[in-house]
Amino acid sequence: MSATRPLHLAAEIGGPPRYDAADYVALARLAERGALDFVTLQDSFTRPGLDALAVLSRVAPATERIGLVATVTTTHTEPFHVSSAVATLDWVSRGRAGWVVDVSTTPAQARLFGRRHAAPAEAVWREAGEVAEVAARLWDSREDDACVHDTSTGRFIDRATLHPVDFEGTTFRVRGPATVPRPPQGHPVTVVDAAGEHSEDIAARHADVVLVRATRPEEAAGIRERLRARAAAHGRRPDALRVLAALTVDLGDGERPAEPGLERAPRTTGGAGGPYYRGGPVDLAELIAAWHRGGAVDGFHVAPAEPARDLERLVNGTVALLQHRSRFRTFYPGGTLREHLGLTRPANRYTHAGGAS
After folding, report:
1. Does residue 61 contact residue 28 with C-beta atoms inside 8 Å?
2. For 197, phi and psi rounded to 5 degrees?
3. What residues of the chain score a pLDDT lower than 50?
4. What is the pLDDT of residue 159?
5. Which region holds residue 132: left if phi is over 0, alpha if psi is between -120 and 50, else beta?
6. What is the pLDDT of residue 261?
7. Which of 63, 114, 186, 300 ranks highest by number of CB atoms within 10 Å?
8. Distance CA 181, CA 179 (A)
9. Residue 351 CA: distances (Å) to CA of 25, 83, 91, 108, 355
10. pLDDT attached to residue 195
11. pLDDT at 147
């Protein structure tokens, strides 16, 4: 495995609605045994099931190292509450939290709240970018040493280390400062699924990790370079962006070889699910290694077709083979999600010039 370009792997643990936290704990622990960077848990306003942030807050004390990333819909949601909830997950997990920025565009979802009408994709993604920006400012609004807790004097907060953010977006205003202390990671990891033009721009501006969809490594490499160039245009360090190929995998026929042509390129379903792999764990390992070795992506985000079955075959088959070939790590080098991803802890913008990308 290259010392300069480590392979990053993540997996979704959602699927059909489940109401027993033990199911999610078991899947997260399985992924942790494979030393995956993080697991994601999808969520939306119309998806049946439990709240993703709350579920991962339950999973956090039952795991030790794996990153925990919940989907958060920013539309119809108060930005202050979003930043507080994600910061809380970072504290509960001791620095392993992240969030997938998502939006809502349908009238049916707007009617659930009854506060405003549905808006086009361009508008809600612009708002999502503003939520990502104000969340980062709120995480910085309390310096790391803001909490004093001096019981002898009754002084618990150093008010000189609190900063109002005074942010005004197109649909909201936030004064701040935050009520939750600055998260252990400084900023929990921000993930954006760059499935379209509007989300791609938000990813280039705000994301630490970007999920992309491609059926060929050349296509993925082109998207990665475009994202890095756009990030640089926004004043960010392009090498601080982790680009992962999103891939749905069906390992139900794990004992059979992949269909012809799938050894290096996933089969496209033609639907909203994006690239789809059906075959065995060994050929999936070959695909992952080839794409990464060629510089197409920094890693893969895998969505199992059947979570329990496919995640087990991914970890004990695909990941084990990659580890055996020294293509993927066998242990976590650090304790936080940022450390897994090779990302630095951002400096506080209110105490350091320039802030962090």
Report:
1. no
2. -60, -45
3. 1-3, 148, 258-264, 268-272, 353-357
4. 65
5. alpha
6. 42
7. 300
8. 6
9. 38, 20, 22, 44, 8
10. 87
11. 59
CA angle 195, 199, 200 (to 5 degrees): 80
Query: The tokens 């209110």 sit on which residue?
Result: 350
Q: What is the 3-state secondary structure (H, E, C) of the chain?
A: CCCCCCCEEEEECCCCCCCCHHHHHHHHHHHHHCCCCEEEECCCCCCCCCCHHHHHHHHHHHCCCCEEEEEEECCCCCHHHHHHHHHHHHHHCCCCEEEEEECCCCHHHHHHHCCCCCCCHHHHHHHHHHHHHHHHHHHHCECCCCEEEECCCCEEECHHHECCCCEECCCCEECCCCCCCCCCCCCCEEEEECCCHHHHHHHHHHCCEEEECCCCHHHHHHHHHHHHHHHHHCCCCHHHCEEEEEEEEECCCCCCCCCCCCCCCCEECCCCCCEEEECCHHHHHHHHHHHHHCCCCCEEEEEECCHHHHHHHHHHHHHHHHHHCCCCCCCCCCCCHHHHHCCCCCCCCCCCCCCCC
Token pair 């069906």 is found at: 250
Task: Quote the CA–CA distance of 99 and 83 in Å, as a whole number.
Answer: 10
List the end-to-end C-alpha distance of the chain, in Å, as a whole number. Answer: 27
